[in-house]
């Protein structure tokens, strides 16, 4: 039943995606011909906004564009990845010439080199000039175009930061050259490759051999993922591999989850405000997206701070929350809680009272804060009485 619902949901996304696709004719000087593009902008795209969007370039768009666009819509809906601009290059009968390669190196050659320059020098600059794009670019290629997209790795500064290789048909020495290039790459790159147990055997064997080389690389700039799907063919592996590829490439973009909290946040050396700030700085650095830190994530970090008995992090997260949203009582409340735990009763009461004048949190209302204030005032009064009795004696 669950799988049926997911399938129906995916069909709805694909239908919606198809209705929102714009078709453009692009006059290419490099190719001396006109190429058809499929372009899908984010649902809420605003050309006047400062918000930047990653760009996903899809080759073989006549059959690969809709699966990519449907998967992007699906994952974007659940905030699993940023809203992205999808650009499909329709190749059709030109595919053979577009993917033409040198038999020794596997790199684009003659008509393939012209197509390479069309992407590098015409298409991407055009998309960047027309839309609100971030610096993060993703290339998606299947079969021969899977071999082709790897050629962009050999630029001094690659124009693509992520590569989705769907059953790539590696040619010449491309496989070996990719391994050597990724080993010494100085830029952050996400590299995904997939095959299946029922893939075309020569292609699958070459991919497996390539994986054996890539999985041993120790380059901190490389984030590498590999999947061998079960029960899929050279063509049916596309949908499952796309889902996994996008999920992994944009893993950092997702909100905090239990796995990250347990494996990364809990053992983090330093206060947890630094952890979350560094995390979102990396999102900005990698994807070119300024994503706000949510109050829900700060609350998750408060829970982790309690588990590691890290009272300083509670205070620092409170200060960060005040900076991010001064109108919310969240930050002031946790700064007050920090003062209370340190036994600074007067300071805690003052901060709690300040929190009462701010917007309520979802999980902590005014009545709960008042109970803290009243309890501390009773303690404070009792302390004063005890002090007076001591003076009389």
UniProtKB/TrEMBL annotation:
InterPro entries: AB_hydrolase_fold, Esterase-like, Mycobacterial_A85_antigen, TPR-like_helical_dom_sf. Residues 1-19 form the signal peptide. This is Alpha/beta hydrolase-fold protein. It holds the Pfam family Esterase. Keywords: Hydrolase, Signal. The lineage of its organism: Bacteria, Pseudomonadati, Bacteroidota, Flavobacteriia, Flavobacteriales. The keyword Signal applies. GO terms for molecular function: hydrolase activity. SUPFAM superfamilies: alpha/beta-Hydrolases, TPR-like. The keyword Hydrolase applies.
């Amino acid at each position: 039943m669950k799988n049926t619902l997911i399938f129906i949901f995916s069909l709805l996304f694909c239908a919606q995606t198809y209705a929102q696709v714009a078709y453009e004719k692009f006059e290419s000087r490099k190719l001396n011909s006109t190429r058809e593009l499929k372009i899908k902008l984010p649902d809420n795209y605003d050309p006047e906004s400062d918000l930047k969007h990653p760009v996903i370039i899809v080759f073989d768009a006549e059959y690969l564009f809709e699966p990519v666009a449907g998967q992007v819509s699906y994952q974007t809906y659940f905030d699993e990845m940023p809203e992205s601009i999808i650009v499909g290059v329709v190749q059709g009968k030109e595919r053979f010439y577009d993917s033409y390669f040198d038999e020794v190196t596997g790199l684009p050659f003659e008509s393939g080199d012209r197509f390479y320059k069309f992407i590098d020098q015409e298409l991407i600059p055009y998309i960047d000039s027309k839309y609100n794009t971030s610096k993060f670019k993703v290339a998606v290629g299947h079969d021969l175009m899977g071999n082709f997209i790897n050629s962009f790795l050999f630029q001094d500064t690659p124009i693509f930061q992520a590569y989705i290789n769907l059953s790539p048909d590696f040619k010449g020495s491309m496989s070996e050259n990719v391994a050597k290039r990724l080993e010494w790459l100085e830029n952050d790159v996400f590299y995904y490759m997939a095959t299946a147990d029922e893939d075309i055997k020569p292609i699958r064997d070459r991919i497996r051999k390539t994986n054996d080389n890539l999985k041993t690389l120790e380059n901190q700039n490389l984030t590498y993922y590999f999947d061998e799907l079960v029960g899929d063919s050279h063509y049916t592996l596309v949908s499952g591999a796309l889902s996994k590829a996008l999920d992994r490439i944009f893993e950092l973009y997702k909100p905090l989850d239990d796995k990250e909290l347990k494996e990364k946040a809990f053992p983090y050396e330093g206060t947890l405000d630094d952890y979350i700030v560094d995390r979102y700085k990396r999102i900005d650095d990698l994807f070119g997206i300024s994503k706000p830190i949510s109050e829900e994530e700060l609350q998750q970090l408060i829970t982790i701070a309690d588990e590691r008995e890290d009272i300083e992090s509670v205070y620092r997260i409170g200060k960060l929350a005040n900076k991010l949203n001064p109108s919310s009582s969240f930050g002031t409340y946790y700064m007050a809680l920090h003062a209370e735990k340190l036994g600074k009763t007067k300071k805690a009461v003052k901060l709690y009272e300040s929190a009462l004048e701010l917007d309520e949190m979802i999980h902590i209302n005014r009545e709960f804060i008042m109970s803290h204030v009243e309890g501390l005032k009773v303690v404070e009064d009792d302390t004063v009485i005890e002090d007076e009795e001591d003076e009389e004696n």
